[in-house]
Amino acid sequence: MSLVYRHARAQDLATADGLVVASINDLTARHGFGPMAAPSPPNFQLFSLKDDPDGLWIAEDGDNLYGFSWSWVCGDLWFLAQLFVDPAQQGRGMGNELLRLGFEHARKSGANYKALITFSFNCVSQGLYIRHGLFPKMPIYFFDATRERVTEGLPEPPLRSVPLDDDAASMERLAEIDSRAIGIPRKKHHRYLLNDPATTGVLLYAGSECVGYSYIGSKGHIGPLAVKEANVLGDAFMTAVTIAAGGSSEKISAFLPGNCENALSLAVDHGMRITFPMLLMASPGYGTWTRYLPRNPGFM
Fold first, then answer.
1. pLDDT tens, N- to C-terminus, the chain (300 residues)
2. Is the pTM of this model over 0.85?
3. Which CATH class is domain 142-277+286-293?
4. CA-to-CA distance for 2 and 195, rounded, in angstroms?
5. How far apart are CA 270 and CA 155, in angstroms?
6. 24-48 burial code (b ≥16 CB/10 A, e <16)
7. In CATH, which of 3.40.630.30, 3.30.420.40, 3.40.1190.10, 3.30.200.20 is domain 3-111?
8. Which residue of 6, 60, 84, 194 has the lowest C-beta tally within 10 Å?
9. Do 75 and 115 form a contact (C-beta atoms < 8 A)?
10. Closest C-alpha among 76, 55, 62, 74 to residue 7
């Protein structure tokens, strides 16, 4: 049978997640990192499918799902959350076609900028993206450590944290912070996170001024985190670390961009170590994150 490309359906997403996990583990194992992905419920994929179904595509041959791409749009930004092809089926042009369909999604949405996060050692994919006008912008490092290690000598949180509510005033504050930090408001994604029982969101204050926000997962993962001004990112990160360390998770983790020197130094000083390197790629004019820590490569 021949390859067919079609919009993904809700019932495809668990199978697509299995393809993504297998593809990631094949890649990371070949580069000496060992398998690092595990299946998870496709909650954000389902959210994105309901919000904008034009962003999710599959490639199939008969009953076999061989490729999957997923992108979302907020404001002027199109973001490629995932693009994976079954390693045994590569060379059939699926990656190029799925990327073309994703770029068509960007065109229809009117997005001016495109971006994605990929593994820094994934040279083949980087070449594909460069050919299509997305260029390396900066490294992003995944840091983690045991909670016991992080809590040694942990200071009092430098900023005051207030639980986030899904009300109009909070949404406007979040939109203002995101517009400064990453150039786009993300109200729909904040509402997704605020409805996630495994995630806690806080606004961060220096005195009476709201300077940023952070989300902390029940498994000790920090992000997304954003601030209005780059000079408070270190304080915001340390406040999030103290909140995460006060939970019950055995691990504390975060994705830290290479431009965020203060956060990188603080992570290392408190026992966090780089587990694997990633890379932000984007179209010209986008991609200097000095006020933002992403949640993961799919959510941004």
1. 689 999 999 999 999 999 999 999 999 999 888 888 899 999 999 999 999 999 999 999 999 999 999 999 999 999 999 999 999 898 888 999 999 999 999 999 999 999 999 999 999 899 999 999 999 999 999 999 999 999 988 989 999 999 999 999 999 999 999 999 999 999 999 999 999 999 999 999 999 999 999 999 999 999 999 999 999 999 999 999 999 999 999 999 999 999 999 999 999 999 999 999 999 999 999 988 999 999 999 999
2. yes
3. alpha beta
4. 41
5. 10
6. bbbbbeeeebeeeeeeeebebbebb
7. 3.40.630.30
8. 6
9. no
10. 55
Within 13 Å and on the Cβ side, how many CA atoms surround 55?
24
Note whether 240 and 222 are within 8 A (CB): yes
Q: Which two tokens stand for residue 84?
A: 């994976």
